[in-house]
Design brief:
Helix content: 25-40%
Number of helices: 4
Order of helices and strands: HHEHEHEE
Strand content: 5-15%
Radius of gyration: 32 Å
Structural class: alpha+beta
Oligomer: single chain
Length: 142
Amino acid sequence: MGLMKKFRDYFLEEDYEDYEEEYEAPQLEEEALPKTAGKANVVSLQSVQKSAKVVLAEPRVYAEAQEIADHLKSRRAVIVNLQRIQHEQAKRIVDFLSGTVYAIGGDIQQVGTKIFLCTPENVDVSGSISLDGEDDRPMKRW
């Protein structure tokens, strides 16, 4: 305990009034600043951003749904065109992709007749697309 008292007395007995002077940062002369060749070292923050990719997919068989899911897991948006595939297989692909999108926290939206936009969580989609002639047709899943 005696050692602690000595440390406390040593540090607390200093006169702090001497330290009340204002501190001024030293001014650098222009000659002291390093010279650079133009703006070669300046990088725009917009150019640092990584570009986003959108993948267009037109599966011919159900087995290609896994490739689409791999793109989603790699955080890429995918537009899926199911117009050239049988309706039953197209429904299976949409079900598979719906599960994948749910698992990664993304979203799936129909943007056309048998055309879907699948997005991972890092992509926000705003707005909506109204499909022409939807009101004339009877209600159908898609």
